[in-house]
């Protein structure tokens, strides 16, 4: 039985799609990453994320593209993962941001309507790990790694935060 | 999820936002998006254009705008962050620079006070520096005016941050002619909006010349373009 840990996850309403939200749950010491990868719920690699709003922005774009029928990948969750990447190479994005068999920190992302909230507990029960508050993502960030991954320049560091540099690339990469 | 394509989400969302202004090209809204203050720029359909042409032009302008924003950021120029682009409705969701004032308003109010005027030269120098950096990146803004430059207060350093906005008419070019024209557009806008600021603009150009590696060719072209302007005789 899972303890009542509902405060640890984070939900953000998708303003463009009223009634839908993005919920994120973070787990550490995950032992069944390989299994999770097969069911492709949407996990992300440790150290590559800065903070939860990165996911929200990626999820918004993915949901929008699904609605207009212009997704680049085959499913909504793979689209979220693809959106996190600074490049347009799909397989590369799965390698860098998708869940790997030996990951032990996993972030679960769910895009759902209000009625589907029960889904969350269902997914949570599938994770063999310990849930921790989503805000802790920022403590797991590997800043130099992120800077290298997104090719953030030194001058760019002066005009904004790392999060801003990443969000901008995520939004603009399809026309670069 | 419904299988039919539905691209009404953004347009519906826009109806709940505050319309800030409507230009010939786009409507600008202000609101909140995913917990952040945003500006949404909607390039609406122009019925007077042929539809295929309209679509191509509008799409191109949207693309150029966001590309230039990222290029400038990478070069260390402050611009709003792009959060999301909807290519079906041609809407760009940008960071709303809260607590900012346009350089235009700032210059106008500063000119009225003795102390204000002193700081203007430093500002002109800063603008020159930033434009030099932008042109060295081969980015042409295309619509340089003091209304397209914002001053955002930075509490830590005390000195305000200059943010360039509205890259809708921007494009990439290495040609000194294009850069010269870019500066010329600013000169015209500057001098007509802010009377008696010739010295200030001179200071801007001086700073540009010092900061840019390719400035001499650009200034040369600027002088040529000045001679070409309206009501200018091209004799001799």
UniProtKB/TrEMBL annotation, chain B:
SUPFAM superfamilies attached to this UniProt entry: Protein kinase-like (PK-like)
Places the protein is found: Nucleus
Coarse class of the protein's main subcellular location: nucleus
Entry keyword Hydrolase: yes
Domain Protein kinase per the UniProt entry, residue ranges: 14-236
Domain of life: Eukaryota
GO MF term list: ATP binding; hydrolase activity; protein serine/threonine kinase activity
Database matches in InterPro entries: Bud32 (IPR022495), Kinase-like_dom_sf (IPR011009), Prot_kinase_dom (IPR000719), Tyr_kinase_AS (IPR008266)
Keyword terms: ATP-binding, Hydrolase, Kinase, Nucleotide-binding, Nucleus, Phosphoprotein, Serine/threonine-protein kinase, Transferase, tRNA processing
Reaction(s) the record says it catalyses: L-seryl-[protein] + ATP = O-phospho-L-seryl-[protein] + ADP + H(+); L-threonyl-[protein] + ATP = O-phospho-L-threonyl-[protein] + ADP + H(+)
UniProt family annotation: Belongs to the protein kinase superfamily. BUD32 family.
NCBIfam families named in the record: arch_bud32
Name of the molecule in the record: non-specific serine/threonine protein kinase
Organism: Scleropages formosus (Asian bonytongue)
